[in-house]
Amino acid sequence: MTDISEIKRCAWAGSSQMMTDYHDKEWGTPLHDEKGLFEFLILEGAQAGLSWEIILRKREAYRAAFDGFDPLVVANYAPEKIEALMANAGIVRNRRKIEAAVGNARAFLQVQAEYGTFDAYLWKFVSGKSIHNRFREMSEIPAKTEVSEALSKDLLKRGFRFVGPTICYAFMQAVGMVNDHILDCYRYSELTGTGV
Asked: Which domain holds residue 92?
């Protein structure tokens, strides 16, 4: 049996147990759950200018503060709720990001109304299946791509905020639209179903 510490992972995964768990169980794994997609959309926007590890540490507080990331509930937040969120030390207390989360919930519901699900809308940008990149080094991974730029442009047109091309690419990585695990990371072969 292989010692778990000998398993090869993407370099960033070793900074903490929380990051290792996120790397092993979520990052790059195709996600089709509506609340899960909404959660990542809000968390990636909240991360702008911060590290992902900071956001992961605050994730449970975000889930509590934002009613389990139910877009229908978040879309109906009144100004009093926004003020309460601004006083919540468990989340990033940035008014623009909090107000964007509420506005994004409303835009999310409009996309659901048009496409049936946000999932159906989102995954059409990658023809319904993950893009498996073949990077050998973390330094090869881009900050944005033509697809993330197209997604960003369309989301902005629909009234979403904090969805620039770089945020959209991080979101695409998080929900498995792209698999950016490096080739010798054990998750790459798991996600592609190949021995690389």
From this structure: 17-192
Is the full-model pTM beyond 0.85? Answer: yes
CATH of the domain at 168: 1.10.340.30
pLDDT, tens only, 65-110:
999 999 999 999 999 999 999 999 999 999 999 999 999 999 999 9
The Cα–Cα gap between 170 and 90 comes to 22
Q: Which of 12, 26, 52, 149 is catalytic?
A: 52
- Mean of pLDDT values over 3-30: 90
pLDDT at 1 over 70: no
146 noted as active-site residue: no
Which residues are registered as beta bridge partners of 131? 178
Instruction: Compute the chain's Rg from CA coordinates.
Output: 17
Catalytic residue of the set 44, 121, 123, 169: 44
188 included as an active-site residue: no
Helix (H, G, I), strand (E, B) or coil at 188: helix
Distance CA(161)–CA(104), nearest Å, equals 7
Does residue 88 belong to any structural domain of this protein? Answer: yes
Confirm whether 22 is a catalytic residue: yes
